[in-house]
Amino acid sequence: MNDQNLSSLQNWNAFWDYHLGAWDGQWTRYKPSGELSESFLSNRSFESDPEKKIINQFNQYFYNHGEHEEKHWTYSFKDHCKKDGFMHPASDYMRGLAFRDGSAAWLVLQAKKEQYFPMELFLTNKNVRCSVGMLYGVDGELQRTACIRERRKDLDDSSWSNTSELVPPWENRNQWHGITQIIDTDLTRSSINTTFEMKPQTNEEEYFFPDNIVLRCPARITLNQKFTITGIWLESKNHLKTIKAFYGNDSKLIDVRFSIYNHK
């Protein structure tokens, strides 16, 4: 197996080694203004064959007015494990990049004219996970944001609240120190020591979701201008995680960076 195929296999396994199983959750979607759009319960279930070469995904959505929706997808290692990430069966231009602890990004490799631009960024901790998402329209305008908080099915305890509304912006004046893991577009992996400060960013919208989850993203994506989309999760007063997707001046993905921080 050559290095490129090995990197693809490592990326495939990094996601499925963690995310297999059934996840109960609450989805909450917001308008770009921050106004609550809808909130509903869900179950996302992933099952595989013994070799993890065929994955079946079964999603169920339980809406407040009693409507129930289901979606099914099948991933195969042969068809969906690509040299630039694994492909979602529902979208051939989206790719998945995964870190070894299960943190991951579903994203578009390049913003293009007249193309929708969705993204979902996962952060994890053992049997719980959260993700932030957003959808940009074909005109580049932000259409909606989302926060999904999940736990493994039948888990007795969950740290997630039932709150749906955005919370007031909060500050954390600690300087955080940690390690950042990097995945490039050819799935090359590296790591660096980094610091992080919880400062507002210029030219970005900030959405403060419940449970200390934050999304930073531009209000509009302009082609041929660099931009960054970031998910932040303050797990506790001493632990913080971030995941960032960096896009260059050509609107192409540069890399995805996952960081674990502690403060001193």
The fraction of residues assigned to DSSP E strands is over 45%
Global Rg:
18 Å
Q: What is the helix tally?
A: 2
The count of strands amounts to 18
Order of helices and strands: HEEEEHEEEEEEEEEEEEEE
The major β-sheet equals: 11 strands, antiparallel
Structural class: mainly beta
From the N-terminal CA to the C-terminal CA, the straight-line distance is 43 Å
Summed over residues and divided by their number, the pLDDT gives a mean of 93
Search tags:
mainly beta, 11-stranded antiparallel sheet
Structure description:
It is built from two helices and 18 strands. The protein has 264 residues and is mainly beta. It is globular, with a radius of gyration of 18 Å. The N and C termini lie far apart (43 Å).
Question: Helices and strands in order, then pairings?
Answer:
Layout: H1 3-19, E1 21-30, E2 36-48, E3 54-62, E4 68-76, H2 77-80, E5 81-82, E6 85-88, E7 91-98, E8 104-108, E9 117-125, E10 128-136, E11 142-152, E12 175-184, E13 189-197, E14 205-209, E15 213-217, E16 227-236, E17 239-247, E18 253-263
Antiparallel strand pairs: 1-2, 1-11, 2-3, 3-4, 5-6, 6-7, 7-8, 8-9, 9-10, 10-11, 12-13, 12-18, 14-15, 15-16, 16-17, 17-18
